[in-house]
Amino acid sequence: MDELGYYSASEEIACRELKGEYLIFSGFSRKTLVVHACAFRLIELLKRQPYKYDEILDALGKASDALDNNDLASFVSASLEQFIELGILNYSGE
Amino acid sequence: MPVNPETVFVGHQTTLVIEPFVVRLKSAIPAVQSSICHLYQGHVFLSEDASSFADFHISIDQVGGARRFFRPQVQFKFDGRMPFKPLPYSQAFPFFEWGLNWCIANQNFRHLLLHAAVVEKDGQAVILPGQPGAGKSTLCAALVGRGWRLLSDEMAMIDLTSTELIPIVRPVSLKNESISIIKAFVPDAVMGESFHDTSKGTVAHMKPPVESVRNAKLQTKGHWVVFPQFRLDSSISVETISSAEAVLDLAKNSFNYNVLGALGFEKLCDLVEACDCFRLEYSHLDEAIDFFASLAK
Amino acid sequence: MMRHSPPLIISLLSNPAMAQTLSLSQWDLLVRQARCAGLLARLGFLLEKQGIKIPAQPANHFVSAQFYAVQFSVSLQWEIRLIKKALTKVDIKPVFLKGSSYVIAHNQAALGRVFSDVDILVDRSELALAEQALSAAGWMPSITLNAYDKKYYREWMHEIPPLQNYQRGTAIDVHHNILPLTCRHCPDSKKLLENIVDCHGDWLLSDIDRVIHSAVHLFHEGEFTLGLRDLSDLDLLLKEFSAQENFWKKLLQRSEELKQQIPLFYALRYTHQILHTPVPEKVLKASKQQSPNRINTKLMDALFLRALMPDHESCNDRWTGLARWLLFVRSHWLKMPVYLMVPHLLRKAFRRVMGKERH
Predict the structure, then answer these.
(1) Where are the domains of chain B?
(2) Contacts of C75 in chain A (CB under 8 A)
């Protein structure tokens, strides 16, 4: 996974927790998704400010119900790719 | 008090208040005029000088030329434009109803519009989303026949500020077997004529109760979302569903969620958060009605 | 012969402050004319800028249209991103034309504008590769074409057939020139591509070329359903760009270079006459003088001053239908020589009668 660029949240998203489930809306791709809690935290993190890949792993690894390291890395990589594809996140690297 | 075509259609034109809209309708077709007068009897018809602004200018006219003699047709026009192909002459009144649905759904981005029926009792509203075969309109007509207030049989209109449900009180559209079922279930329901061989089969309309029309400006909060599914010979079953699932399913059943973007998403979440959501499978109407009665207690 | 007072929408576009004195029934007519002309959102924004308080009933319609336009703009930004992504894979950097360019450049002409296709310009040599790359990303020919139609588009017109994304339904028109190759006064697309500018990382035609393109497009057009909207675009472009130094002089010069003096003449004449765009008198004179052919202004006024009105019963007179038809034929005459045009029109008429014509 690319380590140099910054990941950030798109301006055109909305996030909502509803009775223990997590929903994301993408204004660009017009998709509404139900996501895992960890993915929701990822997006909320990037809404606050842009982060590099390693910084993301660090921040999410600290949560009490965090996945273990290997699982977390694959999960984050897959999520980042998916969310960029859906216009939920942006990436500033090459 | 009966409403006469001669009185309300001046120069084949009338202005009808279907809250929150004002509709200017022009039609020389006798069946359209009489159906309007019959089924919208409880609504307000404005006189020409009082009716300065109309939200929709609709005309239903017979197609001219050779078509007048061979399989005559009618055309729906929205301010001179023809969004649809012509239909058989006999379907002129349903064409008005379908066309008006289109006008509202297509032009309106001030409210979130769901394809759903909405009825209310004691200040609590039920939203009945309408997937095909769900039986939403039959259920809606039956509930209305049992004293629930009709807000709409086709479109849940949600205020984007308050998240309240806004009534659009119009005749309830029934098709095929539902027509006889409702005639039996609600013996004093006032029904319009049946229209055969439409793309949906046979279609007829139930006149909205006077009380529902009188309360057409009364908005109300949603309390339940119930996804109905009619299944022949099944016993009644009720399943609670999660808010997230309800949001996804309602979004699929929306006319304009796709356009409303993040605001539509937030409002839909607000609405669902305040509601209990269920899937209801039923085959007997009275069992279904009992279920709703138990909700309202 | 022509109507004595302009339609309400025209008056309001040139003078939004007039809205303060409208009665409810005038608002009724205005909303209908604006919707018909595709200008409901734009007018809403213009009225908002003037601080006009619209009465509740008509306000609902403006607010709806404006909301739609804002959301459309979000969707468009995404579409542009995806188009660039697909073409970057084959090292093609497209030039965005018309509506998309107004949005990218944050021009006034982007205000309230909604449209159905994204138009891009690529070099003719890159056309096949562009088509392949877009096809790989899900854009397919949007209409079923027979051999004649395919030839019409590829050989004679200036675009490959419209492409539609199979998932999103969004459409792209890929051009290699701004006018058909068979056109009587065909501009040199190389000249256009030499003058492109970088705008926030995207390529656009220069401001002056975009005005000329807008004029060329409108005054070669056969169907004027959105004629007033396109004229309004020109009005906003001219108002915005005329603040640039030597704008009018450069505009006239460039129209000569690109051999598009006549469309520019019409653009300046009709924006000025209809929408009261502040075009200097000497510029109007110069644009007429530099036209290569003599223009029968009386005849063209009779046609364009009708066809550029909204196609609404309140704006039409008994000659409007004829004016529109004559301009329809004219647009084909401009785009193709007679030996191609007559069979083409006959073919179109035949297919329409047989219910096969969708274009």
Answers:
(1) 5-107, 111-296
(2) 28, 30
Please tell me if residue B266 touches chain A, with a CB cutoff of 8 Å.
yes
Asked if the structure places residue A77 within a domain, the reply is yes
User: A66 lies in a domain?
Assistant: yes
Q: Predicted confidence band at C358 (pLDDT cuts at 50, 70, 90)?
A: very low
Whether A1 maps to a domain, the answer reads no
- Give chains near A: 3+ CB pairs under 8 A: B, C
Chain segment C115-168, per-residue pLDDT in tens: 888 999 998 889 889 999 999 998 988 666 676 666 666 665 556 777 887 777
**Chains in contact with C via at least 3 Cβ–Cβ pairs below 8 Å:** A, B
Mean pLDDT throughout A66-90? 89
Residue C278 burial class via C-beta count within 10 angstroms: exposed 0-12, middle 13-18, buried 19 and up: exposed
Q: Which residues of B touch C65 (CB under 8 A)?
A: 109
Of the pLDDT bands very low, low, confident and very high (cuts 50, 70, 90), residue A93 is: confident
Nearest CA-CA distance, residue B276 and chain A, Å: 11
Predicted model pTM: 0.92
Rounded CA gap, C308 and C221, in Å? 11
Instruction: Compute the distance between CA of residue B252 and CA of residue B247 in angstroms, rounded to an integer.
Output: 9
**Domain total for chain A?**
1
- Pick from A53-57, B28-32, C168-172, C236-240: least confident: C168-172
Residues of B in contact with C312 (CB under 8 A): 79-80
Q: Residue A70 maps to which CATH number? A: 3.90.930
Range of the domain at A65: 6-91
Domain boundaries, chain C: 8-353
